[in-house]
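We close this part of the discussion by returning to an individual protein. Part of our work consisted of pairing the sequence of a single chain with a tokenised description of its backbone. What the numbers capture is local backbone geometry rather than side-chain detail. The amino acid sequence and the backbone structure tokens for this protein are reproduced below.
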Amino acid sequence: MMLKIKSNRHWRTFLNRWDVPAEVLAGDLDWCTPEEDYLDGFFCYRGYWYHLGMFMRLPATPGWDAQHGDSFFSGVLIKLSSDGETYQVATYYS
């Protein structure tokens, strides 16, 4: 089965910890503590909040740097700029 990837390929800037709603930091992202240097690298995609630390490098997908699996058949891909300040994001599914 062929992997399908959907993205508008727009470059976006990562958000800082203070841009993330407090209820999200207390819930899904409670592992991102400021003491452990989780101050930036956040973004919201399709209504869900992510941190760069949730992604795993994926060298087998050309053009994308890392992935976060939502299910066995779908997830989110990310491509980082050379300076690490901006990113592109996509949805993948099969």
Notes: The first strand starts at residue 4 and ends at 6.
